[in-house]
Amino acid sequence: MPGIRLSTSPWWQARFRGCGYRWTLGREAILEVLSKSEEHLSAEDIYLRVHPKYPNIGLTTIYRTLDILTDMGLVWKFDFGDGRARYELIEGSKKMHHHHLICKGCNRIVDYTEFIEEEKELVKKMQNSLSKKYNFKITSHIIQFYGFCSKCDKQKD
Amino acid sequence: MPGIRLSTSPWWQARFRGCGYRWTLGREAILEVLSKSEEHLSAEDIYLRVHPKYPNIGLTTIYRTLDILTDMGLVWKFDFGDGRARYELIEGSKKMHHHHLICKGCNRIVDYTEFIEEEKELVKKMQNSLSKKYNFKITSHIIQFYGFCSKCDKQKD
DNA sequence: CTCTTAGTGGAAATGGTTTTCATTATTAAT
DNA sequence: ATTAATAATGAAAACCATTTCCACTAAGAG
């Protein structure tokens, strides 16, 4: 019978179960929102996008799920300095590996993918060396540039 | 007459005045603490170190002064993911330019200075290119590695 | 020394995130 | 299918770093 969705839940479901977590509607909803968005969403952003379709999923669940996702390594948690964390799917996202320019004036975020290869090379080298020297198992890194976008640069007195 | 301190207040005083700010006891105390410490201090850390000598300087003043210092570019404000900001003097510090390894287990911070030259080179190149492409005036950057220190790596199940 | 106003402290407010707890829903066992 | 064990949930309350308010104080120009 056509029209029946055999699976609304991708490989995440298996991943969740594999980690000993249950697969719930809320988690599916949150991953759906994250996977459809190309932006850096705050917990509240996600809540607002989940809410129309699933009105009885609360903010608390969003936070709890995001924590789990971050721990599982599926989601990146960012701090752009405006007092609220931003979340972004790592794998499964259509976006390629990227970093951020952050405007200190208006907090606008620009994603960039330039120099990623060169950066990767350096990061790899650093990671190897630092791991050994400081006996530290490095799992991830963050690179961010801060400054002023054209609009905010003009406005400055 | 020997023994008289001609100036407890270094060039910061001039810098403050130059920016239109007044030079106050609180600001001197905070800069004194920052300049004597080699660590990444939270606002409360600073408060606790200022307090014995200057008991009537409040946390509010600490926060306000740190904001100013950050804006003036004298202090770096870091987020290591534990819910409180950390502050570190940039210039005037005995420490050289460095970045951080952050343990996701115990939140221990390791400073490192390796690869700074190579990094600077890449950063410079990126900065030039990104500035042009995105019309963004880049003023600073952050590089942080996350992982697990030897102790926390062992503890993991 | 005086006046203007930036700076201050304490208390209260703020706001993102976390905790509590009684209820619900998922999953494994029957 | 039914049930039993317990993970997950929502709402409200708690938390806690930071900010705001406001009456008071003190820096520094004149």
Supply the key terms.
homodimer; 157 residues; alpha+beta; Arc Repressor Mutant, subunit A; Dna Ligase, domain 1; 2 domains; three-stranded antiparallel sheet; three-stranded mixed sheet; 6 strands; 42% helix; globular; disordered N terminus; DNA-binding
Write the layout of secondary structure elements.
The structure is a homodimer of 157-residue chains.
Chain A: H1 12-18, H2 25-36, E1 41-42, H3 43-50, H4 59-72, E2 75-79, E3 85-89, E4 99-103, E5 109-112, H5 116-134, E6 136-149, H6 150-155
Helix pairs in contact in A: 2-3, 3-4
The structure holds a DNA duplex (30 and 30 nucleotides).
Task: Give a description of the structure.
The structure is a homodimer of 157-residue chains. The first copy, chain A, has 157 residues and is α+β, with helices and mostly antiparallel strands. The first copy, chain A, folds into two domains: 1-91, Arc Repressor Mutant, subunit A (Orthogonal Bundle), CATH 1.10.10; 96-157, Dna Ligase, domain 1 (2-Layer Sandwich), CATH 3.30.1490. The first copy, chain A, is 42% helix and 22% strand. Chain A has helices spanning 12-18, 25-36, 43-50, 59-72, 116-134, 150-155, and strands spanning 41-42, 75-79, 85-89, 99-103, 109-112, 136-149. In chain A, the strands form two sheets. Chain A has a three-stranded antiparallel β-sheet. The longest helix of chain A is centred in the last third of the chain and has 19 residues, at 116-134. The N and C termini of chain A lie far apart (66 Å). The model of chain A is unreliable at 1-7 (pLDDT under 50). The A-B interface holds A 77, 79, 81, 101, 103-104, 110, 112, 114-115, 118-119, 122, 125-127, 129-131, 133-150, 153 and B 77, 79, 81, 101, 103-104, 110, 112, 114-115, 118-119, 122, 125-127, 129-131, 133-150, 153. Chain A binds a DNA duplex (30 and 30 nucleotides) through helix 2 and helix 4.
